[in-house]
Amino acid sequence: MLKQKLLFGLALAISLVFAGSVNAQTLKIGLKSEPSSMDPHYHNLTPNNMMALYVFDRLILQDEKQNLKPGLAVSWNNVDELTWEFKLRSGVKWHDGSDFSADDVAFTIGRAPNVPNSPSSLGRYIKQIKSVEIIDPLTIRLKTEKPFPLMPTYMSTFGIVSKKTGTGASTEDYNSGKAMNGTGPFKFVEFVPGDRIVYKRNDNYWGEKPNWSDVIVKPLSNNSARVAALLAGVVDMIDFVPTSDIEILKKNDKVSISQTVSNRVIYMHIDTARDKSPFVTDVNGNPMDKNPLKDLRVRKAMSMAINRKGIVEKVMEGVAIPAGQLLPDGFFAISPNLKVEPYNPEGAKALLKEAGWGDGFGLTIQGPNNRYVNDAKIVQAIAQMLTRVGIKSKVDTMPKNVFFPRGSKLEFSFMLVGWGAGSGEPSSPLGALLHTYDKSQGFGSSNRGRFSNADLDAKLEQALATVDREKHKNLLIEATEIGINNLGIIPLHFQVNTWAVRKGLVYNARTDEQTLAMGVKPAP
Amino acid sequence: MIAFLIRRLTQSGLVLLVMSLLVFIGVFAIGNPVDILINPDADQEEIERAIKALGLDKPMWEQYWIFLVNALQGDLGRSFVFNIPALQLIWQRMPATLELAGFAMFLSIFLGIPLGMIAGLKPDSWVGRTIMSGSILGFSLPTFWVGLMMILLFAVYLGWLPASGRGETVDVFGVPVSFLTLNGLSHILLPAINLALFKLSLTIRLARAGTREAMLMDYVKFARAKGLSNARVIMVHVFKNIMIPVVTVLGLELGNVIAFSVVTETIFSWPGMGKLIIDSINVLDRPVIVAYLLMTVSMFIVINLVVDIIYSMLDPRVRLGDMKS
Fold it and tell me: Which residues in B lie closer than 8 A to residue A11 (C-beta atoms)?
């Protein structure tokens, strides 16, 4: 009895010591992926880009639905087809107190594509700029060789750094904090790799001031541990809530859930180019000299055989939206004509028969098992659905570090992949996934099925050279329709991004999967 | 002695060389890290630039040769992901892992030996049986499951201890340690227990077996006959004799704890080397993988060497010159 009392007392004492020491204005965030550096230009990948947003503003910002909104630039327009002019915000101060001006923008455009040893640079968004012209301290002009309608979108992808602190600064100087001088809503305090990143509020911020005086970001890569940390109150917010935990968390009165559809489409890529595809066999599993996947009717039948609603309900536990094109409703240049392919196994069988594959064929489907939400399970479900209509399918899933290198070497015939359109419009998936592989122009870099359609190529290239917004949009819609109707890829579903926050907070859920402390507010 | 050392060092060098070659070939065979590190939006020009920037455009044997030449000068290359020298990266994470491993070893020794001795002295009592059943659980339950259950019970349900992270640290001689603050201690407790569980069970079993054997020995009977108190017989005579196997095994286990605390570190988000190596493997960060494994192998070589030398000093019958190193 005494022992019990002692134990209880001890427990009470421990819990009292560890509770309540945290400032009410501190926000603690648990993230699935950690940035590899604080340098905003070192590694062009979502975790790095979103953490850079805390400290470094961009010329143009993206709201939670990826619509462009003024950032350090208040307005932008075409002076002529080859010149974009940006009017900069006046009165903006760097964290060290100096003034922001066009010089800083010009300096950033020079630095961002050229960070030494960068494993993924921002050059993609900057190389169209042939020259930079500073008109006055608050006006800057960017000249291109060809008309370039995507300029505002591309200018929303990288943070502007200070010329004064940034000159000669290396990636190490950003990690140590020496060069972490931004104009953004938070000031940098400290970066301890693997453990935490700490920020404090910038009280002189030009825009809406964040609700939090201090922000601590912790990498918690294990899914269960991340959920546990939220339930234990170690963090106030987590991203990438596992689909299996969402229902349980919804019932928990200590937390609330924020969700929105993602810009990430999950799709099947198909080898439509080769006559002899590595993982296509005849019904008995023998190699074949003919590739049925080249036949549009076969691809159509495969798309009809996939029960997207079933995958969403059973595999994704309702946390996804069936897809009929490259981006979900609400994004720029969505085709009103493309609909989700209805589930029709009988029709699929008939179509296969018509194409001369009534007896079916053999196929191995590849996919990653640690990249997308429930990726391996989706591949299994699809294999079953295809087998039901006569395409005898096997499953081969592997870790992403094996899957992507092999996929890029064109070792697969039919594979599950996902694409997040960071730009919030369809030219990025069209150019990378569906345009003919073209090294010199930089098209089709992720076209792992080597789909090729001359009409699509022409429409997309025309769209990318048309500055008129309405014409540009219509061309993108036409290109999307060609790509989807010819089944260069088979879209499956759009992921849904899910955050969980402590009761009393709300998060403005974002389509681009970014977790930003600026978007976390006390519940009204 | 000298001949033995020279022979042992040459062999160690050879082991390191073969190991580095194997890892190099292995990572090369898995694939190109740029495919994972690069933004999917990147075009071919950018992919080629990145491959060149990381030195991956050269043939494998040339990459290995460059690595070898640099390694002999003490440079194991820069991490592809962090652009920081791989050794420095491991060095930064090492204190956290060493602290966790040390704390776990501390727990397993100071709980395991007394518990094992009790179980050995009273093998048929309910106390002894409970301890032994407990050790079976400690052996057989998977670490990751126990870790998650501990988080669920102590952090989520009871709310006594934090679920993850390292907590406050204090610098001791420039090395950050967390066991000196109450907050840090509360953070290390769960992962350390999780990591210690297996070693604890091992220690209990070793101590119990040793105790049971020693209790039957003539020197114990003699000490009893001499009229020594029970406490003195157990604490001095039995205790000293069971320590030999315990120390040997735990010494070797220490290496294991340091090198392979991967699971515990991942579950508890402990910012140590184990988490670093898993993250590096996931993105094929070859310089870090190679440097980490080279370091681990070196550590085991040194531990074994030290054990051999200590043996020869403890036991005059063992002569290093005769040992097959």
Answer: 158, 160
